[in-house]
Amino acid sequence: MKIISWFLQISFKQRIWLFTTVVGMLAITVLGILLSSSSKPKEVIDFSINMSIRDIAPNLGVTGKGLARELELPIDISKKKPLNLLKVTDEELHHAVEHILSHSDSMLKYYIYAALVLFGLVFLIKLGRPDGADVKHRYKWYPRAPYIASLLLSVIVAGFLLGKSPNPMEGTVKVFKSMLGLYPDPMAKVIAFIFFIILAVIGNKIICGWACPFGALQELIYSIPILQKIKKKKLLFVITNTIRTCLFIAMLLFLFGIIGGRKGFVIYHHVNPFNLFNFDFETFSILLTVIIALLAAFATYRPFCQFICPFGLVSWIAERVSIFRVRIDKEKCTQCGACIKACPLEAAEGRVKGKKLPADCFSCARCLNVCPVDAIEYKS
């Protein structure tokens, strides 16, 4: 097996790196478990429509405006009146409470993200390429097994076991929602967003490529060796990024009431595939988004990330300042096209041709062992 051959080739120093990284991941996870278990669980309160927004909101960790938005009321409506006088039904209140609680962040998940990013970063920089390896044996470099293992951990642990929140997509949206006063702790939302950005900047979009649960699920499906002829046809980045950008702008226009007239409407709530990890498809559009994205992933690389994800757009911008990334030695490069063919997007092509704004690179490592002249490395 390629993974065994790779392990036998790596040096003693690299094996120390591997051991230390695994220990570090376990330490980060244990720390996360200890700190998460020390936090007090919220009291379960039986809410009723005889209570006001002001009575209910603090117990859900949202502001009055936030609860009003979830109840599909104007965010500036009176917060003192009982909900029954605002014509809110028991069913509507129950649905709103469930939706808010489903977005409660699992603090442990932040540590899982950090652990997975640490592993991906060390693998790409220190382990994937055996020390002193001959370029003739490049096909044995960067075996897929460690990457697949990281993706599986992300889907299983950071996804289905810990639920949908937090995740990079919501981390982006909540920053803008907090500007409307929908959360009592806007700084916490900013810090969460900064956390995801830092992970994206340390290693080029590595939080998306190695740790995001829905991104990982799409990657795993795409890796199934079928429909190879279709996979060779890549989507034009100028089209996918234009759609993603327009959707992001539309989200802002609706959220701040510039379009639609009512502040607080979030487009992404209706196409949030992370609901899959809670098995909560509150609207048909969410279920449809999940089905289309996962089916399309058999033939198209990370379709949700390319077309919709707001963090995908933000992290693409952040790629300009990524510390560690795929680097191409222009003096060695013969422009043979091997990396362009291996890349599932137009990322490698953009970098080879020196484009100022190339397509997203998810640090998937596909290009790192195909260059015949050893012109590609993952480094700072």
Report the average pLDDT across residues: 93
- Please tell me what the overall shape is: elongated
- Assign a percent range to the helix content: 40-55%
Given helix and strand content, the structural type is mainly alpha
Total number of helical segments?
Answer: 18
Count of discrete domains: 2
Please trace the helix and strand order, writing H or E for each element. HHHHHHHHHHHHHHHHEHHE
List the topology elements.
Elements lengths: L1 H8 L2 H27 L14 H8 L3 H7 L19 H13 L4 H21 L16 H18 L6 H11 L7 H17 L3 H6 L1 H10 L5 H4 L5 H19 L28 H13 L6 H5 L2 H9 L6 E4 L9 H5 L4 H6 L23 E4 L1
Antiparallel strand pairs: 1-2
Helix pairs in contact: 2-6, 3-4, 6-7, 7-11, 8-9, 8-16
Name its key features:
elongated; 18 helices; two-stranded antiparallel ribbon; 380 residues; 2% strand; 2 domains; mainly alpha
Task: Write a structural description.
It is a single chain. The chain is built from 18 helices and 2 strands. Helix content is 54%, strand content 2%. The mean pLDDT is 93. A two-stranded antiparallel ribbon has the order 1-2. It folds into 2 domains: 2-39 and 106-379, no CATH class; 53-102, no CATH class. The chain has helices at 2-9, 12-38, 53-60, 64-70, 90-102, 107-127, 144-161, 168-178, 186-202, 206-211, 213-222, 228-231, 237-255, 284-296, 303-307, 310-318, 338-342, 347-352; strands at residues 325-328, 376-379. The two termini are 31 Å apart.
